Protein: Phosphoribosylglycinamide formyltransferase
Amino acid sequence: MEKKVAILISGRGSNMESLINLSFKENLKIEFLVVSDNPEAEGLKKAEKLNVKTIVIKNLKKGWKMEREGEEELLKILKDFSPDLILLAGFMRIIPPNVIEKYYLKIVNIHPSLLPSFKGKDAQKQAFDYGVKVSGCTVHFIDMGVDTGPIIDQRCVDISKAKSVEEVSNLILEKEHQLYFEVMKKLLFSKWKVENRNVYFY
Ligand code: GRF
Structure:
């Protein structure tokens, strides 16, 4: 059976591109829809090149918030598409509680640190400035908090030799691309359950 995945982006869209490319490579039966809050997002062009449908949420001002009109528009887009999964991939808006409630355990995010360390903005800079030797990435369900939802999977990255934030970001990004695809596949095509904060695959 064909699955449906909505990917929400705001910028570069490298995670989105890798999710779609790897799915094509493995001939996975997935229909993608790319949704952006930013009409200038570099990722939109990448999605179009891959012949994936894109939609821009129009009713939004600059910033982190999702205004009422934007929220309604997003809800309508999601209702029309009816996704099995909603993957946040560098989406720079706070998802409104209404949307989270409606799609709980369907909205997933990738964060560039080993949560619960370095939540929020500029996680790679936080890790570099703190001087940790190992960081990584985390894929988690979205809940009402910031980067607090149940953790689905994580990967470690050795950053002990990195000399700049950019180097840290690149090392982590490479792992993000692998991890996000693995997790998407498992969530779509295998059985899983969530008990309290624990996510089990079986
Ligand atoms: C990634 O580092 C991701 O972990 C974070 O935002 C960045 C998005 O990069 N949430 P891209 O747009 O996928 O290239």
Summary: Helices lie at 14-25, 42-49, 68-81, 97-102, 123-130, 165-189. The mean pLDDT is 96. Residues 1-103 form a domain with the Rossmann fold fold (CATH 3.40.50.170).
